[in-house]
Batch of 4 targets.
Target 1
Amino acid sequence: LRPLLDGAVERLHRGELDRVRALLDAVVQAMDNVDMPAADPRRGRHALLSAEHRVASGELEAGLEEAARTAGLAVVHGWTVVRADALRLQGHAIWRQGDRREAGELFQQAWEAFRELGELKEAADCLQLLSKAALRSGELGRARGLARQALLASERLGVPIGMARARMVLCDLARAQGELGTAGVQARQARAGFRAAGDIIGEGFALAA
């Protein structure tokens, strides 16, 4: 099962959505063949990936419902990391639906959960998401503080994509305040981070910033 699940993650990140669905269907078949218990963590991982696939495919309402259901199952079965991931995914779906306030609340819950679990990389990602939510709400000071925290945490952990995402928020903040030189520096550094992480789409966004 692990190769199927890992393959689904890899292809999801590449945007190969049709291939992801085929792999997820194969996982269901494999789990049913061995009569896997409902509480097995691999069922939680599959449920989370299925919800993420729906969100990535633009099926926001269905993805949101599946992520919420997965978060509930995670509480029942003790899938602590899956629960935190499901909260973050709900935030992403609601963000795309336009509700920045509720998305921010979910990112906050996810950050608290990841931090308690010692999942520092994921906690840093949630800080970046919280900074973006604060920026969109016009809380520029809070956004700057959160983005700097996210950047420092990602630097300590050696996570280029986390550093790049935080720098993109700092770029947007600088641009919003008329600091065009600073914005340009942050965008260039973000572009380098995305390139190091192999994130072509992120690199394109940074190039256009």
Note: Residues 140 and 173 are 7 Å apart (CA to CA).
Target 2
Amino acid sequence: VVSASLFPLFIKHFNSGEFGKLRSNYQNAFSGFLLFAMLSYAFVYSFADVIVPFAFGDNYSSAVVCVKLMFLSFVLFPTILLQANLIIAMKMERSDMIFNFMSLVIHLAGCFVGLYFIKSLDVINYSVLISFISFHILQDALLIKKGMTSIKKCVIAYTGIAVFIFSYQYLTTNFNPYLVFLTAGSGIIIIYLLSAPKLLLHLKQLKN
């Protein structure tokens, strides 16, 4: 819903030459999307051991690891979607298509090469993860070139994601995973609520 609301706003600012507002909208939305992705990953990582057997039966308990790995890939998905909307709004559809194609090639190459040496479903999940990371980096490079973001902001984002994931996995392994989720989730929600007014203020401009 938020992504659908932001896309026409991106187009509006780009067509009117309001690049400062375009950059501000994108960067505020990026933070919100990233926090949502982290919260979703934390929930799945903490509760997959309960949800998967409950939803599909005890025979699928072994799929828990695959589910956790799959959702690791989707940590980047919301911001990939956001950046794709921005790139298309800036009339660079060709670049978006090229990035999609390159991501697909990377994924397929990773699957074929990986499965040749290791017969495991994890290979496919890791290939998806690598292709998503590659896609995101290609988008970042283009948006840096267009002045929508900076190398510093990208490094901070990737570092934050990596620190969060490794820290969360370590904490859930050594402490109660539900308590860890409650603590981390509360922190993420608080950060989001503090930053949300800025995003909502920008969205209201769409109605004006």
Note: Helices lie at 2-15, 19-56, 64-73, 77-89, 93-117, 121-145, 151-174, 177-204.
Target 3
Amino acid sequence: EKPEEIPEVLRHRHFVAIPLIAISLLLMYLTSQRALLLKPTLIEGLPPLIQAVETDQQIPFAAGSTAQLFRGSQLINQNGAMHLAEGSILVRAEGPVRVTVGDLTVHVLRGSAHLSSNNSVVTIAALTTPVLVQSVTGELLIPAGSQWRQTEALPVFNVSQWSAWAASQQFSPLPLEFAQSMEDVLRTFPAPPQPEAVAMIDLSKAQQ
């Protein structure tokens, strides 16, 4: 599975839907949370190479997160981190989930996103959560409900050169049919873990 091509006339920058000043502020906050972003993603016991040869394969991640590796895809387990070598993967994150693909490090924050690498072309669809993308050259934040295809090196985020960075942020709206198909797949995922119940104290009895 991979996002459909978007007609050129539909491509736009998200200046209206997601103000870039809000994106830049969120980006500054996220990049400061290094310890949170670098937590291990994969659970222990998974093999070094995970392949979906003939059928799609669901993979449990740490902290109740789940992913689906689509048929023909390969995922490399690198000591608890994961690298999408080829194909596509759908991630439902219950906390930050990190995936490397090509020369990019992708952080799915809390929600769902689709990543694909086909013939060295990387496409990232932020379905229900913003997606932070980093490389040695720069970084960007893909707003929820949009997608981005790598065509050049990531721009360097610099507050003093904010206008130039903002002008480089080009995203496309998600094709409706693709978004709906991913929603159908997400419905097959196991229910996320429920937060532990907090014991309540009956103060009226405690005072007796």
Note: Residues 112 and 178 are 13 Å apart (CA to CA).
Target 4
Amino acid sequence: ILWLAAAGGALLLIILIVVSVSRPAAPPITSVLATPPGAAPEPAMDNAEAESRAVARTELQRFQQAADDARRLLTECEQELAAWDREVESELTGKRGRAVAAETETLERFSAVYGQPRTAKTELDACRERLATLLQPVAAALASNTAYVPSADANSKLSAERKFAQSAQKTLHDVRQDALSVFADAERKGHGGTQTLKEALADLELRQ
């Protein structure tokens, strides 16, 4: 009886070993958790592809930063336009403008400054729209983490837009400062008059 019991136990052990060996291994817990039900697992990225995407992302971020800088300059241009209206245009009928109109020399100086070409708001808006168009594929690529990089043509266009914004900002700032300088000089001379600067400019234009 003891012999039969021992033989039965050995046979049961052999059956358990065979079943455990033939059963397929369960997937790792991390794999099960990382892959949604019904979705194919994402293929592993090799080193070359990972490096390519990292380089592309650096280029995309550089492009984005350059575009942001151009848009910052456009905002400064808009601020300069507002300051011109507030500090210069308002004086065409104001007290400081009358001081300029009271003397021919300061009037002629102001006329030269006032006649300088200045970037219009519509030009700034057009530049901002062009920048938005250039940034559309860049924003999409940053969101999807692809290996896309902006073309040489896109970089050239971005550089041109940034130069435009930079030049416009400098011109608008410098012209406004020149006009304020004329106002300050006229005030130091202490001249006053009844004719507005707007009327004096119109008369000067007729004489010329």
Note: The chain has eight helices and no strands.
